[in-house]
Every structure is written in structure tokens, then in C-alpha cells.
Write a structure and sequence with these properties.
The structure holds 2 protein chains of 2 kinds.
Chain A lengths: L1 H33 L15 E5 L6 H10 L2 H5 L3 E5 L6 H9 L6 E6 L1 H4 L14 E10 L2 E4 L1 H4 L4 H9 L4 E5 L6 H13 L3 E5 L3 H9 L5 E4 L5 H5 L4 E5 L5 E3 L3 E3 L13 E8 L4 H16 L1 H10 L8 H22 L1
Parallel strand pairs in A: 1-2, 1-3, 6-7, 6-8
Antiparallel strand pairs in A: 3-12, 4-12, 5-8, 5-9, 10-11
Helix pairs in contact in A: 8-13
Chain B lengths: L1 H10 L2 H19 L5 H8 L8 H26 L11 H9 L3 H35 L3 H12 L2 H4 L4 H16 L1 E2 L6 E2 L13 H16 L5 H4 L5 H4 L6 H6 L1 H15 L6 H15 L11 H17 L1 H7 L5 H12 L8 H4 L1 H29 L7 H20 L2 H19 L5 H23 L6 H4 L1 H32 L1
Antiparallel strand pairs in B: 1-2
Helix pairs in contact in B: 1-20, 2-3, 2-4, 2-20, 3-4, 3-18, 4-5, 4-6, 4-16, 4-18, 4-20, 5-6, 5-16, 6-14, 6-16, 6-17, 6-20, 7-23, 7-25, 9-23, 10-21, 10-22, 14-15, 14-16, 15-16, 21-22
The chains are: A alpha/beta, B mainly alpha.
Amino acid sequence: MKSSMKRLFTVLLALALLISVTACGAKPAANESTAGDSEKPADGFPEKQVTIIMPWSLGGGPDTIARQIASYGEKYLGVPVIVENKTGGAGTIAMAAALQAADDGYSMIVANGPLFSLTPSFQNVNYSIDDITPLIGMREVEFVVLSNPGKSGIGTLDQLKEYAASGKTIKYATTGGPGNDSYTMISVLFKRLGLQAEAVPYDGGQDAINALAGGHVDIAIGSPPVYRDYVKSGELACLGTFIPDGIEVDGIGRIPSFKEQGIDAEFIGMDYFAVRSTVDDAKKKVLTEFIQKVYADPEFQKFMAEMGMKAWDGTEDEILQKIDAQSTAMEDYITLLK
Amino acid sequence: MDLFFAGLDTLLQWQNFLIIPIGLALGIVVGAIPGLTSDLGIILCIPLTYGMDPTMAILMLLAIYCGGTYGGSITAILINTPGTSANAATLFDGYPMAKKGEAYKALSMALFASTVGGLISAASLLFLAPQIAKITLLFGPAEYLALAVFGLSVIASVSNKSIFKGLIGACIGIFISTIGMDNISGTTRFVFGKINLMSGINLIIALIGLFAISEIMMKSQYNPRTDRKIVDAGSITKSKITREEYKRCRKPIGIGSLTGVIIGATPGTGGGLAAFIAYNQVKTTSKHPETFGEGEIEGVAASESANNGACGSTLIPMLTLGVPGDGATAILMGAFMIHGMVPGPMLFRDQGNILYAIMIGLFVVNVFMYLIGSVFTKFYAHITRIPYEILACIVLTFCIAGAYSTSNSLYDVYIIIVVGILAYFLRRMDFQLVPILLGIVLGPLAEMNFRRALILSDGSLSIFITRPISLGFLLVAVGSVLLFAWRNHRSKAKALSEAR
């Protein structure tokens, strides 16, 4: 009895130690968040490291671009810029982190359109577009719908319709589940076409393209640079893009839009840099100019060309307009899918 | 062949031979600290590589990756906590060996097996990449489900006395893995409105809580006055691997390396699963399965050759198809892109000489790993001499720092404590931790692919038995469980007749 009491005591002691250690860890973090002094004039800004909060995983398109931009921090901003990935919850975890961070201009976030136009229809979110100010665009995301003619015999939209007419259900790979932009758009496409089809959600763009290349699904959605080499080598075929004007892809040629092919399904994906809307205007300007300088750097342009991407220098107004238009369109699409 | 020599030419520069040992040393250190993984080591070093030429940059990152996978075995052997999830199977026999005073021997075998596994893996990458890539594409949802079931069948042999406790443990693991956003239906599960839980429980966080925190709590019965063992410094490195033991380990290392290469080449799996499957295969085909788990050097050899055997082959689907095999290769893929190489079908054609330089460089990485490891091992073995009351504090500090650093959030620190307390009580009730870990690792792979397969087959279960690869894995899984059950039954019957 005595020894078991002693054991219990030691376990409790170990627990107390654990809790006290974690409690000690909490203090500096709390201090940091109260240290946000937004009254400071912008001419001293920035004097310490700037963090870019990245909602998407390491090694993906936006992450790679953000890390490349961050590497110019010392050169054009005079301080180190670091990228911190806070993934999960379709970007909402990163949004929450960005809004919890001090509004001293030392935290930027990379956001996209669906965080405001789509995610709120699927999750209870505690942010709105008024909480952030977009600074400058990062890239436009061009979703393309692809097929594998060698495996399914589908190489064009007409062949797709024939395939469905033969009584088969089309299986299409998406890069995420319901509430994800690629899932929504490709599902809308099949609804508009009136074809029998079922989504197979995969984890990310590479996974979806792989499933298509392996012949496990009939159709997949992709964005550059993931699908480019497969189409160049003739293994996969492009059925169309959601960008209303169609797109020109290096080495592939023009990919027509679905709008041109008479289907009402359009979407321009975009990623952009933003800060909390309460950050000083002068500081916003410093950060925007920093990214503009990076975009103008020939070395950065060479990097983007090698990746098969283009930097998009959309302004605050352009971004807000797009989000607004996208929100209206998404409302229709979501009702259609329900 | 021209590309091969062009690659060799690119590789043979003194800078490359300087950067590889640096990467390895870094990798071994981050691998050995629970919570810090080779993933993190690679991320931290990517910015350092911006100024380097691509071959040098990638070789440094690969050295971190290989070093990290080996380094994790050090803590698995010495403090019963795998440094990375790939080393979890090393616990079974590594820690019992250390308890018997054979820490140096276990560490040396881990290094030897890791190196052999790594070399075989590098060879597979160099010679078989295009062929293996074709097979990888055949893996659809049904095949992944079958592979996950095969992995889960390992539970039978790692649950020691009670298979039911093993199954309950696996269920607990699978339950933990279901927390968060479900990608297929787009709904959240067991989140209770907490935004931090939406991305689920990070594997490495679960690992720290499960093994390290609970281990420290288990030692709460430890009494420094009576339980401390004084170990003589000279005796630590005395127990060397004998020639007979090297000979005995040939088969386990062979099985381990091959398993590592095959599992590693399958995207979404990785070295941890390879190590478990290899351990299981070696144990079931061994003439003396009862010695496994009691400090059997063959167990260490099998699991360590398997996880490093996966290191090179995880690069195969990444380089040829642009499909990362595990977390670390996903990050490596980012690094490749940063250096102007987009992994995928065109990479070999466009940048062949750099790729060959990297693939040949992987051999160099493994040879250096053996050299550096042999020096380190002598020092590491002395960790067993640190009194536990001091070691526990150091380990706890590293665990908390490691947990915090995975996503810079205190939330993860709370999670390791909650998981640790849960694991402590489960261990007090004689549950094994490894089935729980298997559940966490394989649960999502099994669940997501089961659901995807059923969507593809319009709800028919026949998809799992009409596809040859899937059927094959399922049969092997059933076979290995049956073999285990039969052996168990026989040894029980024998024990019973002896008792009479």
C-alpha cells in the first residue's frame, strides 16, 4: 500500500513537472503577442525577421514560390524572411494563426480565393475578407481537366460523352474533398455536361495525376507544373481549362476553355500575399514594394520560368474584385452540386 | 552509359566530398533527437543550399535524409524511444540488447545493417529505377489497401502474449488517426470544434507521446539508491559483434534490404512500414522466433536494413514519376524544383548527368555514413552510463522542444502529454505500444484507399480479389497470420504436454 502511494506520488510529480515546463514555455509566446506596437513609424520598418505564414504544404507550388521570394529578404528588405507552414483545415488553421499574430506587419500570409468564396460554405470560419488586406498577387492557378487516352480511350470532350453514353460511370480524381476548389469545379463540369460521374478524392495534385497515369481513374484535374510533362510526352490529353479565355502552355500549345466549348463553368484560381487589415498602411507599402522588387529581379524570373510558372502581380483591388466575383459564382455552383 | 560517366564526372569534385559528411553528421544528430526528424533537418538546410550547385545541394540533403534514418536507431536502442517513425521496429530488440549491456553491439549492428540496406537501395535506384517506376503506377487504391492490411498483419507477431490487446491497441491507433478533417467526405471527425485538431494528430507528435513520455513515466518506480547500475566505462565497448553473428545476420539483412527497396518504392508508405514488415518476415521464418523481442541481434539487423533500404528507393517514384514516397522525399522534391529540376517523366532526359551524379553519390553517402557512424557509436554507447534521473530530464526537455518545433505551437506539446498519459496507463495494463503505432501509421492508408477502391468498383468488394497484386498481398497477409497462429498453438500445446 505504502509503495503504491509512493508510486502514485512520483507519477503526479512527473505530471506536475511536465505541466510546469509547458507553462514556462507559454510565457514568452504570450509576451511576444502583446509586444505588437503598431504606432511605430514605418521608416524603421522592418527591423527584425518577417514571417510568411503558408497554409499549404512544403514543396507545393505556392510554398516553393514563397520560399524563393523569402530568399530575397536580405537583399531587398534588409531582414531575413522566413516561411512557416501551418497546414490543415483547408487553410483555415493558417488564417487563424495569421489573425492571432500581432498586427505589426511582421507576419504575412499567403491566401487564396476559396478561403473566402468556398470554405465558409463548408466550415464554420471565424474570419472574413474584411480581416485581411491583399498586398499583391502571387500566381494564377490554371486548372486543367485531363484524360488518359491510352487507358480509357477518352481524348476529347465528345469521346467523354460517348464513354458516358455507353452506360459507364465516369470516375474522376480530385486533389481534395468537398470544399476544395478543384473538387467543386470538376464536379460542376460533370453536372453541366449532365454526365453520370463520381469523384474520387486524392491527397493533392500529384496523387491525382498519378492515379490517372496509372489508369485507375478516367479523368483528373491538374494544375501546372504537375501535368505538363505527361501531356508533352503524349501520355495524357487536356480536355479543357476553367480559365474563361483558354490558356497557352509552353510546349503544349493552346488549351481551350470550357466556356469556349459551350459549358458554363469558369474559375480562375489565385494565390496572393496579405496582411491583417489593421496593419499600418506605410508598412503594407514596404512589404508590397519588397515583393514587387523580387518579381522584377531577372534571377527570380528565370527561376519561375524554369518551374513553368509566372508570377502574377495583381493589385489589392483586382484581388478583391476577383474574390467578390468568385463568391457569387461559387454560390451558384454549390446550389447546383447540392 | 555516357550519362553515367558524365554523372561520375559531375560527382567527383572535392566540394561534394566535404558536404556529404556535414549533411550526415547533421542528419544523425536530428535523427537521434526524438521529435526532430530528417524532414526538419532537410527543411532547415534547404535555404543553405540556394547558393550551391544542384548536385552538391541535393547530395547534402540526401545525406541528411540517410543519416537521419540511421540516427533514429540510436535513441531507439538507448532510451527506448525511436528518433523517427522509421526506427520504431528497432525498439523490439535494440532496447533489450542495451539493457543486457550490449548497447555497443546493437548500435554497431544498426550501423552495419543501415549501411548495407542503403547500398542495396542505392543500387536499385541506379539500375532498376525505370522498371520499378512502371510497377509503382500499377498501385491503385485496391493495392494500397492490400498493402496496408499486410502491414497490419504484423500486429499478430508484435503483440507478444495477448493478440486481443494487440488488436485493441491497433484500434486505438486507428482511432487517433481518424481525428481531423476527412478528405473524402469533407467533414471533420472527433474535432470538438477545436481548429488545431482539424489537421489531425501529427505522427511524430503521437510517437513522442506514445514512446518517450510514457517511458519516462514508466520509470517512476525507479529508485536511484537501489536501482542504479554502475557501468564500467571500459566494458561498454567490449561486446563486439562476433563473426558468427555477422554470418547469422546475413539473411535478416538480405530480407530487410529487399523489403526496404520494395516498400520504399511504393509511394505513401516509407521506411517505418518496411522495417515492421521485414522484422515480421525475419521473425516468422526464423528457426528461433522465441528469442526475438528478448534482445536478438537479427531483429535489429532486419529493421535497420529495411528502413535504410527504403531511403534510396523512395527516390524512384519521386524522380521518375514526380510522386514522393514519404514526407522527407516530398520535401526533397521541393528542393529539386528549387534547383531547377522538376521531378517527373522528363527529368531523366533533361538533366540526366546531374541525376546520375546524385544516384552514384548516394553510394558515397552510405560509405561515409559507415565511417562517421563508427566514430560516433563509441561515444553514443556511453549514454547508457548516464544515471536515469539525469537522462530522463534531458530526454523530456528534448521531447518538449521537439514537439514544439514541429509546427511552432504549444498545442503539440499538450498533445504529447495527453498521449503520453494514455500510453502510460495502457502500458501498465500490459498493452504493447507498437500495434498502436501501426494503427496510426496504417489506419489512414487503409481507410482512404478502401473508400477510394469502393468508389471505383461501385461498391463491390470484388475489386480487392480480382486484381492480382492486391490478391497477392492479401494472401501473404492471411498466410503470415495463419503461420503465426499455428506456431503459437503448437508451442502452447508443447508447453501443456510438458507441464503434464
